[in-house]
Amino acid sequence: MHTPRSRLVVAVGALLALLGIALATASSSVAATASPASAAGMSGAASECALPTPTDDDTISILGRICDRRETPQVGVEGVDVTVEDEEGAVVGEATSGADGTFVIDLPGDAVSLLGSSFTVSLDEESLPEDTEPEVLSRTVPINLDNDQSVTFPIGEAGAAGAGFAVEALQLTVGGLVFSSLLAMAALGLSMIFGTTGLTNFSHGELITFGALVAYAFDQLPGEVTVGGVNITIAVGVVVAFIVSGAFGWLNDAALWRPLRHRGTGIIAMMIVSIGLSIFLRNLYQYFAGAQSRNYSQYSAVTPLEIGPLLITPKEIIVFVVAMAALLVTTALLQYTRIGKATRAVADNPALSASTGINVERVISIVWIGGTALAGLSGALLGLTQGFDYQIGFKILLLVFAAVVLGGLGTIWGAIVGAFIIGLFTELTTLFVPAEFKFVGALLVLIVVLLIRPQGLLGKAQRVG
Questions:
Q1: How far is CA 266 from CA 236, 272, 297, 337, 462, in A?
Q2: How many helices (H) and strands (E) in the chain?
Q3: Which of its termini does the chain have fewer beta carbons within 10 Å around, N or C?
Q4: 107 with 92: CB under 8 angstroms?
Q5: Could you tell me if 289 and 226 lie in one domain?
Q6: What are φ and ψ of residue 130, in 5° steps?
Q7: What are the tens digits of pLDDT across the range 355-369?
Q8: Does 418 lie in the same domain as 276?
Q9: Residue 324's pLDDT band (boundaries 50, 70, 90)?
Q10: Domain range enclosing 90
Q11: Domain count, the chain
């Protein structure tokens, strides 16, 4: 007969196996798609389009590619003049696309001073090849993270009226789904911890960052992890980040939060402690990891798959599948296992749960392990999609809180639903408003919903107040 603990171990083991296999598959897929581009670059003629490799310095750069989609496979467009203008219209950088259709333009100033600003990347129409009609001649690039920014310019026959808007909306939806799945993991972890302890953990962002740092540290170790000739270093690094993050969550609870609970520390005081812990960990990360943007050794430049008018990279597909698998396994554990039922009982009424024989402290410890493991996995995969720095978790913490509150504090499905609403909304609003205001729009939706339904979309009214 299987005990709840053995079933939990089996389920987590299955998740880890799925994660390793999926990311290993992504690794081989990426290698297969990227190799022709590499060969083309060495021969001086581009056979496929790939983004330039991100720079390894403290400067934010615009990484671009110009592709002719009329060719199969796509080919880079050489000799196109590109300019970058700031918000006042002043030209701050110029470049000409190379033989592979790529260009790199460094932005002036340090990374921190550029945050919150936006730049317009424009093509010189006169330098384009004849008989080409690009979808757009300029794109606005908001600087929300202090890492290199990517921009693409597809070249080919113009579609019917309105097709450009529809394609852009679909492209943003794809990106929004990937980001939402990662946001949902982080939000679910925060919601689980709040539900069982009542703690509003402001250091949850640093738990997200911890996962990205662990995966990066493993990636930087000498040598490579290969299976059948396939490099799966990043796959193993993400699995290690998941496991080590769970251990870090147990340490957090055992060393800090459990003693505070036993002393009868109030929720407000513990919330203030979490703010202090957030500041401490963030500065600790900066001291050991540095302030510059980091990228994993693999997947820095990937040839996207073209599905109709959409461009989707293999890593985006794999990240989304792994994130959804993690969410499904976690919700299944919470719904159908004895430890999951005990967790929900503790969330509803800790005192009554203890009187019925449930070990409340053991349940809380398991929740800290699971919630932090999810946060760490979210951070590791987020770093895989866009790079990261020591503040990556802190920067999305507000969105994580918005997702949890919007869906319903302490609820399982509420955190997931709220995350997908927030994630998709922030991406799709860039169709109508400047990208730098997309987070403001998401928080505005949060305020409106809370005015109408303060317990959140899936929360219970008695949970509030």
A1: 40, 10, 45, 31, 21
A2: 14, 12
A3: N
A4: yes
A5: yes
A6: -65, 155
A7: 888 999 999 999 999
A8: yes
A9: very high
A10: 61-160
A11: 2
